[in-house]
């Protein structure tokens, strides 16, 4: 086989609106809106610098089926630049930008192949430097937004061809329940089709489902919400003489989303908590000086500060102040290293004096004593768990599920039930410390 190199991307979602963010300054909003285009620009640069022979884009180029004029023009511009470098682009449409969507009916330039929606056609890919045939690329687009058939089964290799075969599919492999189950299929279905590389799109989280043949989701090129955290980008794939692909991930995103945990344990007052938050923000700025970051804090652990967070709304107050500071940065056009705090999820609890509670003659005390007792004797734990789960054990399915539960899992249930009970009862009765 002749060695070659291609770039695999998917889910560009150009011109996403980022409508989920509240209280965002207009400058930051427009920067966010520009980010999908900026990531596309970076994709073009990676393709040129890495000298790829061609590109495959596996669906959802646009965020909505009636793609904005700006979105389409910016995509055309990117395609044009790739064309000037002789880089061929293979493209399919997905559930967000199906073939029947309202878009400009512009004719695609010669170096762009858009696969139709009837059956996966075969198209030949060439090596740029000498024009040699190196791969057969097949793909199928979504004719309409909802494709619920297993279209993977309609793919087959080009008869008689021994070239490297790439299949482009926008769909849900092995029923990822977090995404809509369009073009549902199994890993086995794909492996059995005999292709060398499945260039997938649809699931926005990057993952390599299988090595040989390669079954790959590159993820989207720019995160668009707090559910899409971490680096986003594309794969550059090198295929060697033996037909083995090696994948290298390239970051393309301009705005990085992340969730940070922050424990309030051991913090003695509000000021210390604020200092902690600010310190994490500085750390993010240092880690990602060239990107804008959007961060959500999950406040966890037990401590005195919980009261200030839960009752006085300290988290909301600090949030407004932090957002104001970053809005000032944005006005100075200082977007690199900007850290936008999207919100605080208060999951922390009140601090408790466990030792004293264990002695206390109260419902809470009794509950805690029961939990400690059962933690140390297997029989008592079994008895408690069985009586708590009795209504569920009447159901055959649930009984089967529960029979597989390990001792450690049961212990962890017990501990978290005790912790939750303490927090809930403590909040109802006022904390033990309140009595001091
Ligand atoms: Mn998508």
UniProtKB/TrEMBL annotation:
InterPro entries: Calcineurin-like_PHP, DNA_Repair-Maintenance_Comp, Metallo-depent_PP-like, Mre11_N, Pesterase_YhaO. CDD domains: MPP_Mre11_N. Gene3D superfamilies: 3.60.21.10. SUPFAM superfamilies: Metallo-dependent phosphatases (SSF56300). The keyword Hydrolase applies. Residues 4-205 form the Calcineurin-like phosphoesterase domain. Pfam families: Metallophos. One of its GO terms (molecular function) is hydrolase activity. Keywords: Hydrolase. The keyword Lipid metabolism does not apply. PANTHER family: COMPONENT OF ATP-DEPENDENT DSDNA EXONUCLEASE, PHOSPHOESTERASE. This is Metallophosphoesterase.
